[in-house]
Design brief:
With 314 residues, the chain is of the alpha/beta class. It has two domains: 152 residues, no CATH class; 100 residues, no CATH class. It is 35% helix and 18% strand. The chain has ten helices and twelve strands. Strands 1, 2, 3, 4, 7, 8, 9, 10, 11 and 12 form a ten-stranded mixed β-sheet that branches. Strands 5-6 form a two-stranded antiparallel sheet. The longest helix has 16 residues. The chain is globular, with a radius of gyration of 24 Å. Bound molecules: 2-acetamido-2-deoxy-beta-D-glucopyranose (2 copies). One 2-acetamido-2-deoxy-beta-D-glucopyranose binds next to loops. GO terms for molecular function: phosphoric diester hydrolase activity. It comes from Aspergillus avenaceus. Keywords: Signal.
């Protein structure tokens, strides 16, 4: 049996190598071209196949031509929506002038997320118990951080956010805290920021939303734990001040690096991930040097506006 297989294999490889069969490669090319899209060449969860997650926050995601999906296509594990509450509806946009009837939290984020997660968690005869795959087909356990930046009055708006998450909640797609002690990672981890009131998050023992604490104030805010704030953020510029690319190739002074290092270390010791916004985006070598330092020092997420550049960087 083995001998037969072996001789078949040898015959096949000889045939493939033989110049007399050069026509076969044209045929093969034709097969490759024409089978594309056939049922047997797709699989249920292939929507995000091949995308490698990168530790990047798609900053001002709602500004992109196609919010959510663009960041997803680059592998960003974190996204963001600014929300405004008017007459019971949460609209998404950077300021009042950019809001429209159509651009809502539901239409731009909740529904697309549900759609992707339903594709990643198909119900077929082969799946015998419910799955909780995340949005990335390559790394199904990877959660997607979803920062919701509350722009209008905190208590009312965040209450509406909690209600708006219901479709994701019902499917079991949210990361949860139970009994104030156990975090169960789910496909989407919601983190309230902007006007989100800390007192609508921290005291709640059973919830599926978290709080973006001030990274620069963690030392004083000793009550902030990773159960409240899986990620804490602050402004890069306010933390380290101005940076410039030195003639010796360094971009931060020893003092600046020390400040950054201490802040990230303190957060990480408490199980809290660090994120800096307003990192320099120009000149490019300064931007890249800062990205490298931040990753080296252990930030959880890089904040990026130019997703093509950051994807290429990784
Ligand atoms: C909210 O409702 C009021 C009363 O119906 C209406 O006048 C107003 O234009 C609405 N605002 C928005 C942003 O839809
Ligand atoms: C949950 O834990 C937080 C942080 O330790 C605490 O402030 C809060 O009071 C606790 N909530 C309940 C309901 O026990």
């Amino acid at each position: 049996m083995i001998m037969v297989l072996l001789s078949v294999l040898l015959a096949v490889s000889a045939a493939l190598l033989s110049p007399r069969l050069a026509g076969a490669s044209t045929e093969l090319q034709s097969v490759l071209k024409n089978t594309h899209g056939g049922n047997e060449y797709g699989y249920p969860t292939d929507f995000t196949r091949g995308i490698m997650p990168i530790p990047v926050h798609s900053h001002n995601d709602y500004w992109r031509d196609i919010p959510f999906f663009t960041g997803l296509s680059k592998g960003c594990v974190s996204t963001e929506a600014d929300v405004w509450l008017y007459n019971g509806t949460l609209y998404v946009g950077h300021d009042e002038s950019s809001l429209t009837e159509e651009r809502t939290l539901e239409s731009l984020y909740i529904n697309p997320m549900l759609d992707v997660l339903k594709r990643q968690n198909p119900q077929t005869p082969f799946v015998t118990s419910p799955t909780k795959n995340g949005v990335f087909d390559t790394t199904t356990a990877q959660t997607l951080y979803f920062f919701i930046d509350v722009k209008t009055a905190g208590p009312e708006t965040f209450q509406a956010v909690i209600a708006a998450l219901e479709p994701l909640r019902q499917e079991g797609y949210l990361t949860t805290l139970t009994k104030n002690q156990t975090v169960t990672s789910g496909p989407i981890t919601v983190i309230g920021t902007g006007n989100t009131p800390l007192n609508m998050v921290a005291p709640v023992a059973d919830r599926d939303y978290f709080f973006d604490a001030h990274l620069d104030a963690l030392k004083e805010d000793t009550q902030i734990t990773s159960l409240i704030s899986p990620i804490a953020s602050t402004s890069f510029g306010q933390t380290v001040g101005r940076v410039s690319y030195g003639t010796d190739g360094t971009v931060l002074s020893d003092e600046q690096l020390e400040t950054l290092r201490a802040q990230i270390k303190l957060a990480n010791e408490r199980g809290i991930g660090a994120r800096y916004w307003e990192t320099p985006y120009f000149p490019i070598r300064t931007r890249n040097a800062i990205w490298q330092i931040l990753l080296q020092e252990g930030v959880a997420l890089l904040n990026a506006d130019d997703l093509d550049a950051v994807a290429a960087y990784f």
